[in-house]
Amino acid sequence: MITYISAGLLGLLCLSIPVGIVLFLLGFGIDQFFSPFPLVKGLGNLVWSTSNNATLIAIPFFVLLGEVLVRSGLATRTYAALDRWVSWMPGGLVHANIATATMFSATSGSSVATAATVATVAMPQAEKLGYDPKLFSGAIAAGGTLGIMIPPSINLIVYGFLTQTSIPRLFLAGLVPGIGLALAFVVITMILCMIRPGLGGERRIFPLAQMLKALLELIPIILLFTVIIGTIYKGWATPTEAAAVGVAGAIVIAAAFGGVSLQMFKDSILGTVKITSMIMLVVIGASFLNFTLASAGIGRELQDFLAGLGLTPLMTIFVIVLIYIVLGFFIETLSLMVVTIPIIVPLVVEMGFDPIWFGILMIVLIEMALITPPVGLNLYVVQGARKSGPMSDVMLGTIPYIIAMLAMAMALIAFPQIALWLPDALQ
Q1: Is residue 8 part of a domain?
Q2: Mean pLDDT of the 197-202 span
Q3: Which of 16, 31, 85, 301 has the largest CB neighbor count within 10 A?
Q4: Residue 365 to residues 48, 238, 320, 334, 411: CA-CA distances in angstroms?
Q5: Count of the separate structural domains present in the chain
Q6: What is the radius of gyration, based on Cα positions, of the chain?
Q7: Is residue 5 part of a domain?
Q8: What is the pTM of this model?
Q9: Which domain holds residue 244?
Q10: Is residue 321 part of a domain?
Q11: pLDDT in tens, 157-181
């Protein structure tokens, strides 16, 4: 049955049908041929119960937060400010790409939005200053993936909703691995540019006065992140309430820098509606698919398959990692999460692993899927911003950063406390 379902999923995706529709169609097919009950009769109730959840209200708020920051021009200011602080390192402006992506990951919650923001601002600089197009664009695509790891992350909210785990603890657990990945990207860039200086372009050192002035422009974004995350961790606000406060704070910051206008509000709201609608269609479609999969007994079949391999729990985790890497080549990341979570996570928990830890490990693997062809969304976002040059440049440029992600995944398996020590310490 697993083979038929996998073939059906890949076949429908190859037809360029929207992912949310694919999940519904696959659910209808499973209900028709494998389920012993007519589940379609309960579709209306399932759609309502899935969407009528207070936790999911945080998604449009965090999307709107990112939209306001991007469309008000704060992205350009942030990039210019970070350029003055990090361009002295081997690699020059490439580090500004990574630093800006990290900064916006801490506010937008979306990898694609983060990559699009940085690519739009940075790409003209690459052409002007003569940077290697592979490394420069690869750093943007990889840096954008941090948007689903560093809190507040929309993907972590979806994971917490589907697994009924604590979203504040997930946010805490993602902080150290997210920052660790950003630092790993910086180190890899420095090593590559020290070996081949031509990759990184000119290193620039700015006067201290300019650096301090630039730091002032970063303070509002840092304060906004602190307010959002701090209110959640202190228990003063739920993630949804903190997201609403974040939107208000973003509007205040945008107004202070003269970035508020009626057109900005229109564009931000329209962008939020489009992104949120896509996410909710995927979540609802996946909920229906998971309902039909459970009825058809796919969970038991997969559990029997893994048990039949005769592997230890640790080796089973490695098999699951391999499954996610392979699926990540072909399935869009959010869809990959919502389709597999109800099947994989119960097996992982039954083997004695922490669901918070596994959520962070899954996010690292999902990040890899964002920059691996043929379905890596960040690759297409960055290529679209380039407007010239082959797609292979972006793909090749991400290879060093994919290696860093694999290393982080192995480190999380070897040392689970990388993800767990912060939520345990602040519990």
Answers
A1: no
A2: 75
A3: 31
A4: 31, 27, 10, 12, 13
A5: 1
A6: 21
A7: no
A8: 0.81
A9: 26-425
A10: yes
A11: 889 988 889 888 998 899 999 999 9
